[in-house]
Fold this protein.
Amino acid sequence: MQDIERMLTEGLKSTAPAISIAVYYRNSLRLNQAYGCLDPETGEPVTPDTPFDLASVTKLFTVTAFLQQVAAGKVGLHDPVVGLVPEFGRYGPRPIAGGQDPHTLAPLDPIADTSQTVNPEEITFFHLLTHTSGLAPWWALFLEDGPVTPPPGRPDAVARPLRVAKALDLIACRPCVEQPGRQVIYSDLGLILLGEAVARLAGAETVAEVIAESVLAPLGLAERITFNPAEPLACPATENDLRWRGRRCRGEVHDENAASLGGIAGHAGLFGSAGAVARFGLAWLQAVQGGGPGWLPDGIAGQAIAQQAEGRGLGWVLNRNGAASCGPTFSRSSFGHTGFTGTSLWIDPERDLVVALMTNRVYYGRDAEAIIALRPAVHDAICAWVDA
């Protein structure tokens, strides 16, 4: 326990100014601590209830909502995406090229392979869930779907439905990077599409409504994990976004594409405390074990954490070779996900262990070296603590 506290306290110096951790072990909350301050310029302390920008950990909630629809028989894993989001097929087959570098905005491979095309009608929800769709990892949609979004609490000059329609059109007309089913290429674009599909399946305006009602409310978390938090200043500050927004982000999603979609997207946008995210992870652990809240049958939960593509389940990252961010001590049956802002959720079913680690590491910039080192060290120390 002292090793964990020491690592996290030292991490405040170079990894992130705000850190929080929650650990469930054998169905009991054994650790729920917070360190540091919400913003070094103001010094307000972080608490265990502090909501962090979850970044791509949001994907797990979108995936859960989609799998609930699968379990209800409303959609199949191998159904084509265009069946629910017909705009995705608007421009027909598209060439293969290289996507865009999120750091420089430069094309990764500007020369399209005109000898091959990808038919969007062949891309299924299974491909989106396993990141084998062949979609590019990233495009700067936010630069083309309207003016810069305003700070929290101020109205946007462009209605969100118009921004969503433009983003879907941009995804539909861009080249792919590979044929579907051939290679794992992690793609935010695929989860943007999945989020839109979830909303349409449920007859809702946004994926936020579906996640709140079907995933969070049964766990009592609908007010503890939210998009567009009502109290932005209760959240840790993240990056000083000089490239697009011209301000330091606090209480607004760090991810630019999610921000341009009104702060609500399938790939990013949720804010939540370490304890709340860990409680969600516990529900997944219980579902895999055949119990839990009943919002996900154990059969489909087990399918979600079985290897469906290299290192991937359905939405989940798998620790099959011990090289995942949870470190080598977590069992090979472990599953989890990370977020770009410095967040993560990892679940070890062999130990009955759930760990949610929240940081705002992008406050110090986008260099990930420090968080890459901290994550496995902390998870190794937690294993040593619970195994003792």
Notes: The chain has ten helices and 13 strands. The chain has a mean pLDDT of 96. The two ends are 11 Å apart (CA to CA).
